[in-house]
Specification:
By secondary structure, this protein is of the alpha/beta class. The protein contains 12 helices and 9 strands. It has 2 domains: 3-212, Vaccinia Virus protein VP39 (Rossmann fold), CATH 3.40.50; 223-290, Helicase, Ruva Protein, domain 3 (Orthogonal Bundle), CATH 1.10.8. The protein is elongated. The structure holds S-adenosylmethionine (SAM).
Length: 294
């Protein structure tokens, strides 16, 4: 192998694909990276060293896995497509610190996987070029399971990255921004053109880093209640928060009580959900719980 090019060059990728007669499956979000600079940016953003572990989701033919093997201590890669396993074993053979697992990451017991895979690592990060059809379920699973993670550095659809990192006040800000920001501090690393993939995806991409929080930014009595209330607030984006919440919590009743509760949380009832901060939603959730509104 040409060490400078690594696996991710158009020529090398084509050689591997031809050798193994591999055909891409669109349904599995298979768009492989063929650009060394983007790979370097992804790995750089994860802040890895030999004392740290890396979990990759969807290694494909191993372009990013190879960089992780060179930059981290223990590396585990979970790939759903059985046809890729012999290819990965072939191309990653020279690296003794990589373990390949064939599985659907959404069905994996991640806590058990972490215990088995990262015995020597002081910290672990997830680093991946994610399959776009399941980006949000994968990220929410990683965050909600409260795994001992340092960073999650992922290539995702640009539009989703913008929603995850949006601040209150804009049209990108919604329940996804709030969920992701409750568990992590997102930062957009770079925008990525379609031309660095084989085959090229239909959408623009971005690399985002989620620095996983040790402690949430707000203290909640009941996380489930908070997220239900946030979802309900965004039911119809054109409506005010008062109208959306009234429809969910007091269907058919007058607006007065709803307005009082919002005012108690220092949220003007005429505001829209997209202007309300995490702190304000947390306050409102506490007030609703006190009133028995579930
Ligand atoms: C966008 S490609 C990235 C491939 C490679 N990491 C790269 O950057 O070139 C996404 C990969 O995720 C795999 N994949 C799709 N769904 C998956 C799932 N539920 N669990 C694990 N891997 C999955 C696909 O087979 C594919 O290899």
């Amino acid at each position: 192998m040409n060490e400078r090019e690594g696996i991710a060059s158009p020529k090398r990728t084509k050689e591997i694909i031809d050798k193994h007669r591999f055909s891409f499956k669109k349904s599995l979000g298979q768009n492989f990276l063929i650009d060394q600079n983007i790979l370097a940016k992804i790995v750089g953003a994860a802040d890895l060293d030999a004392t740290k572990g890396a979990l990759e989701i969807g290694p494909g033919i191993g372009a990013l896995t190879e960089k992780l093997a060179l930059n981290a201590g223990e590396v585990t890669a979970v790939e759903i497509d059985r046809r890729l396993i012999p290819i990965l074993q072939d191309v990653l053979g020279p690296y003794g610190n990589v373990t390949i697992r064939q599985a659907d990451v959404l069905k994996v017991d991640l806590k058990a996987l972490f215990e088995e895979s990262f015995v020597r690592s002081e910290k672990v990060s997830v680093v991946a070029n994610l399959p776009y059809y399941v980006t949000t379920p994968i990220l929410m699973k990683l965050l909600e399971e409260k795994l001992p993670l340092e960073n999650i550095v992922v290539m995702i659809q640009k539009e989703v990255a913008e929603r995850m990192s949006a601040s209150p006040g804009g049209k990108e800000y919604g329940s996804l921004s709030i969920a992701v920001q409750y568990y992590s501090e997102p930062e957009l690393v770079c925008i990525v053109p379609r031309t660095v993939f084989i085959p090229q995806p239909n959408v623009e991409s971005a690399v985002i880093r989620l620095k996983v929080r040790e402690k949430p930014p707000v203290e909640l009595e009941d996380e489930e209640h908070f997220f239900t209330l946030v979802q309900a607030s965004f039911t119809q984006r054109r409506k005010t928060i008062a109208n959306n919440l009234r429809a969910r919590y007091f269907p058919g009743e007058g607006r007065e009580r709803m307005e009082q509760l919002l005012q108690e949380a220092e949220i003007a009832p005429t505001r829209r959900a997209e202007t309300v901060s995490i702190e304000e939603y947390a306050r409102l959730s506490g007030i609703f719980l006190r009133e028995g509104l579930r």
